[in-house]
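Q: Got one fold?
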Amino acid sequence: PYYVDMNQNLFLQASLHSSDQNLKVFVDTCVASPNSSDFRTVVYELIKSGCASDPTYTLFPSPRGDATRFGFSAFSFARRFPSVFLRCQLLVCRYRDYSSRCYQGCVSRFRRNADS
């Protein structure tokens, strides 16, 4: 566990451990839950499809492509739960493959009209 105060800034880094230097890591989705085994019932989206859902979420530059850095402000679920757990989905792509999902950034998905 990592203990923080409310509204304290949290900084995270995810990195690959691979001998292949031509890989890039990208945070696609990151959600928080008060329950470590249930990320569907009560959740808070920080990132969805590469788009920041939380106004305090910040993506930071990384010195290497095989690592990503981001941060957000600590929060609670209506002060009713003592802990917050994170689950993030990361994508791994070929470095400098600009057609890959890693280089598309935020992808908003819109609903289509049934008539079109």
